[in-house]
């Protein structure tokens, strides 16, 4: 039987920044072998609270106990030494080191003479990663992995700590159903050994599967706490956003007959996908589903010219120049990448700079950029997409959901014919997610051809007119909306 001092106890924690109160008087208790879900919109204070527990941030007020003893980590190393680890949503890996080197970074096994035992390092890393469904080599550089693969490495790195409390910040945001299931199995085993978890996620359907209790934050305050994870999703959404979100997935209208995007016999020279063909009509949302490693991201990157390929891509009947992102953009095709910070936005720059750089050929055709025109373009994009910020604000100051809106805004200002979205709602809250779904619906009704890649099966099924299922780089079938059920998609994705 646990007492109030067992595990982690957070009492009255407040964090004040100049002009902003991130947390106010928050209490949380996590018992041994317990998983507490921490829910809230972006900006609700979840990451701040996680950072305080992990020693990244110092509280303005409040105290913490860890197994009955005062706990006030001054740095992440203090927290790790106490047995508390944090798995970040934004990967913090060393891109040029191998998978094995990243998993055991700082703890590389050595043999006599101080030399690193690479065989032992590979074996230990492989053991952890296989438990998470990771099948790639331990020797490849981390930068060559997909975002999902990097997320698995990040999780394995934390599991190597042998921590007694793990804070998981959106651990499944880039993972598909198969990889998520493997992670949950590992969490259940660790819970049975007394390991505690704080689980941060915007995927509400996961909460019942993994959590014992739920704590909801809004605007830096704890607004609800539930002694069970069996809470109606509508209730959780209302507690998180302060209002009811009646319709998460908008109504899907039939597309037009006119074909806008044609992909014919597209193959990767590295074998990541083979002989892929499909068409997308005006106003159609075409979903692409599959487990990690199926070739989804590689396929859409090739379609937009970011990666080499063999085959043909046409927009409105005109062939798009291969291996050319500029050619794709000129043809009217844009892509919202899955790695928004690494590929979608220039984080240290302003919203205005990010919008302008994607539209220079339109607003400065002669090479001269008029400041007034730049401000007007950025202001229009901010207003149209409801970005919570001004054009002069730095992208680094925005929440994940608003950064994603900036990525959308800068490309959609071009008025494209084809929009490809790779994991459009990865790691963003339910309120921002609903607004992005509304943007997709608006584009569909305007006759834009849309391709959506998502690891969230509910999302790809809820948005799409048709769904193509990839497995190991091959097309396993295209399902119409009325036959695209979750069980059927998973069956095809795992064959």
TrEMBL record:
InterPro entries referenced in this protein's UniProt entry, alphabetically: AAA+_ATPase, ABC_carbohydrate_import_ATPase, ABC_transporter-like_ATP-bd, ABC_transporter-like_CS, P-loop_NTPase
UniProt cross-references to Pfam families, sorted A to Z: ABC_tran
Keyword ATP-binding assigned: yes
Listed SUPFAM superfamilies: P-loop containing nucleoside triphosphate hydrolases (SSF52540)
SMART domains: AAA (SM00382)
Gene Ontology molecular function: ATP binding
Record's keyword annotation contains Hydrolase: no
Gene3D superfamilies according to UniProt: P-loop containing nucleotide triphosphate hydrolases
CDD domains for the chain: ABC_Carb_Monos_I (cd03216), ABC_Carb_Monos_II (cd03215)
Domain named ABC transporter: residues: 8-244, 258-495
Record keywords: ATP-binding, Nucleotide-binding, Repeat, Transport
Protein name: Sugar ABC transporter ATP-binding protein
């Amino acid at each position: 039987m646990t007492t109030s001092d067992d595990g982690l106890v957070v009492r009255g924690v407040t964090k004040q920044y100049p002009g902003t109160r991130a947390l106010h008087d928050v209490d949380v208790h996590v018992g041994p072998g317990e998983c507490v879900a921490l829910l809230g919109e972006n900006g609700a204070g979840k990451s701040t609270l996680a950072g305080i527990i992990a020693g990244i941030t110092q509280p303005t007020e409040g105290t913490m106990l860890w197994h009955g003893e005062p706990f006030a980590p001054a740095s992440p190393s203090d927290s790790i030494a106490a047995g508390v680890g944090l798995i970040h949503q934004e990967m913090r890996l060393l891109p040029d080191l191998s998978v094995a080197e990243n998993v055991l970074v700082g703890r590389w096994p050595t043999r006599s003479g101080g030399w690193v035992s690479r065989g032992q390092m590979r074996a230990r890393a492989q053991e952890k990663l296989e438990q998470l469904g990771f099948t790639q080599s331990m020797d490849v550089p981390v930068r060559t992995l997909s975002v999902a693969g990097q997320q698995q490495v990040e999780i394995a790195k934390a599991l190597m700590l042998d921590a007694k409390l793990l804070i998981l910040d959106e651990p499944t945001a880039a993972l598909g159903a198969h990889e998520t299931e493997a992670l949950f199995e590992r969490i259940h085993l660790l819970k049975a050994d007394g390991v505690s978890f704080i689980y941060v996620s915007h995927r509400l359907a996961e909460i019942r599967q993994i959590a014992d209790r739920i704590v909801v934050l809004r605007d830096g305050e704890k607004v609800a706490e539930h002694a069970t994870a069996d809470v109606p999703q509508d209730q959780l959404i209302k507690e998180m956003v302060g209002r009811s979100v009646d319709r998460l997935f908008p109504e899907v209208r039939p597309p037009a007959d006119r074909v806008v995007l044609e992909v014919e016999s597209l193959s990767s020279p590295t074998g990541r996908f083979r002989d892929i063909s499909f068409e997308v009509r005006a106003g159609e949302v075409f979903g692409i589903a599959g487990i990690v490693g199926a070739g989804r991201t590689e396929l859409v990157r090739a379609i937009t010219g970011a990666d080499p390929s063999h085959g043909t891509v046409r927009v409105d009947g005109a062939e798009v120049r291969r291996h050319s992102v500029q050619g794709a953009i000129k043809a009217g095709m844009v892509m919202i990448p899955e790695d928004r910070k690494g590929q979608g936005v220039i984080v240290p720059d302003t919203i205005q700079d990010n919008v302008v750089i994607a539209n220079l050929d339109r607003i400065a055709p002669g090479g001269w950029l008029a400041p007034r025109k730049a401000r007007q373009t950025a202001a229009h994009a901010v207003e149209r997409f409801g970005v919570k910020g001004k054009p002069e604000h730095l992208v680094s100051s925005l929440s994940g959901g608003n950064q994603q809106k900036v990525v959308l805004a800068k490309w959609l200002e071009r008025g494209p014919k084809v929009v490809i979205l790779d994991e459009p709602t990865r790691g963003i809250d339910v309120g921002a997610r609903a607004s992005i779904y509304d943007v997709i619906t608006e584009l569909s009704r305007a006759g834009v051809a849309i391709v959506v890649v998502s690891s969230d099966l509910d999302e790809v099924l809820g948005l799409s007119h048709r769904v193509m299922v990839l497995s190991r780089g091959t097309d396993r079938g295209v399902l119409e909306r009325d036959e695209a059920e979750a069980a059927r998609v998973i069956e095809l994705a795992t064959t």
